[in-house]
Structures are given as C-alpha cells and as structure tokens.
Amino acid sequence: MNNRSDSAARIGRTTGSTARAGTKVLAERRSARYLRSLQGLDASGKVGTVDVSELVDAVHREFADKFCATPLGIVSRCYLGAPYEVHTLAMDGSIISHYRTGEPLPHGMDRARSLAESDHYLAIEVYPDRLVCVRPDGSTVLLENDQ
Amino acid sequence: MNTTNVSVTDLSKVVSTLNQVTRNQQALGDQQVVLHDAMSTVQRNQDSTQQELLGLKAQFVEYVRRDELRQNLQLAQVQILEVRGELNDKFGKFAEVRELATGTLQALDAGIVSQGAIRDLSEELMLRTPGYWLTPALIAIAAWIRDEPELATKAIGEALRRDNDKASLFFALVLRRHQRDRATAAWVRQYAARQDPAKLSREFVVVLDAVSTGTFGREAKPMLLEQMSEWYGRLSQEQDTVDRQVDRWAKMLDTMRRPVDPRYQLLPVLSPTWPQLKDMLEGATVHGAAEEMLRATFDGPVPQSQDLHARVDNILDGLVRDFDAEEAPYRKKEAWLQAVVNANGDHDVANKVMTAEDPLHEQTVDFLTLLSNAALHGDRAGASPGTQRFTLALARDWLVQGAGRLEAGNIASMPARVELRAEGWTGWVDGATDEQQLVGSLSEHIDRETAKAVSEVRMSGAAQAASVFGGLALLVAFFSAVGGAGGFALFLLFVAAALGMWAAFDLRALPARRAEIRRKGDQRRVAAVVRLRGAVAELVDLRGEWQREIAKAQSLRTFAEGLTATAFVATAPDQLRGA
User: Of A37, A117, B506, B511, which one has the fewest beta carbons inside 10 Å?
Assistant: First the structure.
C-alpha cells in the first residue's frame, strides 16, 4: 500500500519550495501600525499634505519584516469626494495619485479598482500575480489573477 | 334666353345634387372617423395578440424545460434502483459477512452463541467470499476466542495480506472494545506509520472518527492527535494543497446560492443589466446560508452513546461498510443519480454539486482534502456528527478564505451602472442618478415621439390633389364664363365645388386624429413612467437586500473563526472522571 519513501520524497519537495511559502504568509493579518498608515493615506482629506515618505516607509517595514514580496502598489477608496474615486500609492515612484471616475489606473492596478471602491476593504495590495484585499480589521483575502 | 331658363331648372337640380354630395361627404367623414376607431381597435388587438403570443412562447419553452426535467428525474429514479440492485447482486454476500462482524462481537458479549456456531458460519463465508479481507479477520477472532493461537495467527496474516490497512484498524478497534489499550495502540501505531498524508485511503475517516469520539484508548489517541497535527502543520505549508482546499470551499459555498425573490418583476423586463444583478444578489446569499449550515451543525450536543461497546461498534460498522474500493464506481454512479434526483432532474445543478464533491469519490486523498471531505459531507464521507464538527473546526481557515474570495468576487461584480430600457428609450442608473431626472428624460423622449407623430398627420394625397384640381377647375370655369361657354363653366363650377368640399372635409378630420395621437402619447407616457418608477424602486430594494446579504459575510467569518478543533474531541466513556 502506501510506503514511506514516497512520503519522504513529498516532504523533500515541500521544504524545497520556498517561493511558494512567500504566498502563504501574504495572507497573514496585517499589523495595526500598517493599518493606521493606510488610513493616513486619506486621513488629511487634502491632496499632497500627507507625508508620503513616511507612508512608504511604513509599507516597506510591514513587508520587509514578514513577507517576501512587496506590492507593486496599493489602491484604496478616495474620500476627497467627487470627482475623485480612488487613489493609489505606487511603490516604485512612491507617489500618491488621486483618480477621477472613469480615469484608468496605471501599472495593472485597474483590476483592483472595483474592490477598492467598496467600503468592505481598507485597501487593495496589487502584486504581479495576485491581489490581496485588506479589510479594516487587518484580515486579508488572496485573489489569484484570474478571479 | 332659352338657355338661361334651362339653366335655372338645371341650377336647382345642381343645388340639390350638391346638397346630396354634401350629405354624402358628411356621411363619408363620419365613416372615416368610425374607420379610424376601428383601425385603432385592430392595432390594440394586434398588440395584445403579440403579447399573448410572446407569453405563449415563454410558456411553451417553460413547458419543454419542465418536461425535460421530469424525464431526467424519472430516468434517474429508475436508474438509481438499478444501481442499488447491481450493488446488492455483486456485493450482497459481503453484506452477510459485515453483519456477522458486529453480530459475532455482540453475541460473544452476551455469551449465548456457541463458539462452534460462530466458527462454522465464518468458515463457510470464507469459502463464499474469496478475496474479501473481513472473513479471515472474523475467523481470527473466532480462533482467538477459542484460544487457538495457530489458526488465529494464520487468519490474521491472511486478513492483513488482503487489506493491511482495514484489517489493522479492525483489530485495533476490536481490541479497544475489550479495553486492551496497549494492543490497540500497537496496531494503530503500525497503521499510522504506514500512512502517507499525501495519499490517505478514504477509510482514514474512521481514524478521525475514533479520535473525535474518544473511542481510542489512552495511548492511541494522543499519539494519533500528535501525528495528525504534524501532518496538518506540514501540509498547511504547501500552498498548492491549501489553495485546493480554499478552492473547494469556495465552490461548495457557491452551491448554497438561494434563488432571487420573484417579487422583482419590472427590473428583469426593463433592464438588460438584470442577469448581472441577479447573479450578484444570488452570489451574496451564500454567506447567510453557510452560517445557517454551520450553526445547524454545531447546534446541540452530539448524539453519542455512553457505552464504549456501542461507540466502537458504530465505527466498526462504518469501517466494514463504507470503504470497499470495488464498490466505489457503483457508489459514484449512485451519488450522481442521487444528485440528479435532489436537483429535481436539473443536470446542470447536479453537475455543479458533483464537481464540488469530486474528491469525495477519489480513492486516495491528502490529509487536508480528507478533512474537507469529512467537514463538507459528514455522513457521506463516513464521518459521524462529532467528527464533522472536529474537521469543520480544523478546516475553518479554508472556509473563511473561500468565503472571502466569493465575497470579493461578488463585490467586484457589481455593475458600475444599471441600464434601463423602455419604449425605445435608454437610461442609466449609477450612484449619482436622480430618479426625477430619469423620469423627465423618459417623458421627454415619449413626448418627442408623440409630437413627431402629430406633425406627420397631414391632408391625404388625394385630398391635396382634389384641392389643386378644384382650384384649376375654378380658374378654367372663370375663363369659360368670360369666353361665353356658360354651360361648361357651370359644370366646372360644380366640379370645383365638389372637390373643394372633399378637401375641406379631409381637413376637418385632422384635429381629431391629432388629438387621438396626443391622447395615446399621454397614456404611453404615464404607463412608461409608472413602470420606470417601479423598476427604480425594485433596484433600490435589490441594493438593500444585497447589502444585507453581503454583510452576513462578516458574521459568518466571526462564527467560523471562533471554532476550535480541540473543543470537539470527546473523551472515551471509560476515561471520564469517576469511570
């Protein structure tokens, strides 16, 4: 029937796949500090008054401490009011941009838009191969790209 | 002069003829109005006939669909009996051995059946069921009771050769029945050591059952719990395996959709966006349904016998009954037919259910899938209610992630704007739409159409020609009179008057026709506005309902996250305090 060598081979494969392990931790609950920073993304209610570098530091800290991957960008709902709908924090240029209704988002972040508009999620982290929805309580939902 | 005399006589005739013509024209005008009314009636009848035809077509399609479902259902009901008959024919003799298993043990407890009878019966079955693992196992027990170690060893060897795993579990459970805990632990240990968590046989559910119901003794239970928690930890690190579980839970939860309320009647007709709205609302209902399912599963105490023998016999029964590989194809077919019956003949629904429970019919599964099987399907995976609670608690993270994915997918599927169509008008509802504006836009559209139709009401071509020819005749009459051809002029005068009157009557009918068109336009506008307002009200209702349903996702998450596996592991009756 079942034999142990088979089992051992399986264990070997498991421990070898560190790349996949990274995606596992992505689903972990986000820290309260990180959530506060995300809320700060919009708390001022004005464009350009948020200290962007502080925010980016907070994001990098969160991901460098625990996770292997850093998101390409973060999309969340914009509370500036009409005509603004969502804003993004692009991690490469580290700039906050506010987008109007119907205005497309760059860097493949558009797929996060409809989720970001909902008040169910505090923010949507965009990765090359997936989206992670962060709820206001810090819990997360992993979405593969095809979904 | 003579001519003049004749003319006076003729003139009175002409006047009376003209009067006659006027009367005739009047009558003609009246008939025209009547005809117009009749045409309106015909138009109305045609509209209603068309409506009825559409209704009839819908009813026919519905009838064909119902007939197809009815036939599928009947066929499935017949075939399910056939499959069960076949199972009975092919494996019926196994049933005798199965009954003998717990029968033997209980007879021995009572001590009222002679050892010879048990031996004779089990040896006879040995001849009749070649290759079946349970018969030598029974012979081994009979020999053990009679204290014939040589025969017992031989029979044990044969049973293990036929099916090592099931026989080991069988002996472990029989020994536990007699509270020989150390021997039980030895059998369980060698069984567990052989298992590969990536390829467990389905009968491993029995081990889960024995652990969660506290049926294994002091030594075996902690050992198994430790081993299982090591497997759980290790497999949980494999993202692919975990993803598969999350996927399965998402699929299974998605089958819990509740159909949308039939009170939405205008939106389906007026909005081309309706299919998306319906899908969104139905998709949102799974969270409430899942929470109800969970609460029902965890409601009340687990029915559990306080007698150790009864608990072991339950599990033994499951072990010998549910997991024989030869029966698996028949059981799978039976499950498919049962799914068709449950879905009232709808193959699409049955297919969805079967895809969601596919791993239930696989011969070997990984440990996490086995946990999902037991948690999702309980009894059908061979798990007792207690085991289902235990495994549900272990599977809660996958359930939460699966529900989270469905929730996110549902939120993302919300259409940015809802399209509404009525009377050739199209409008969109989004966050910033004002109902009054929509209504205004629709009214304007219909009024524009009415105004256009009114402006198209003119004198008929013949009447226009009549007035032109009448004018010409008058002109020629004048010249003829001047030229001295009095009779001809008089005739032409008569013709001109007749044509002129005809044109005048046609002209007089125009305001009535215009008023009729305006009246209809008003009716159309009022009816369309009522339907539009109704549709907007339904949309508001639907949004509210959707928000209530999707909010249940949070409540489901809170409930599921509160489940802890260890709380659902029972203690054996002989290990309770004071036992």
Answer: B511
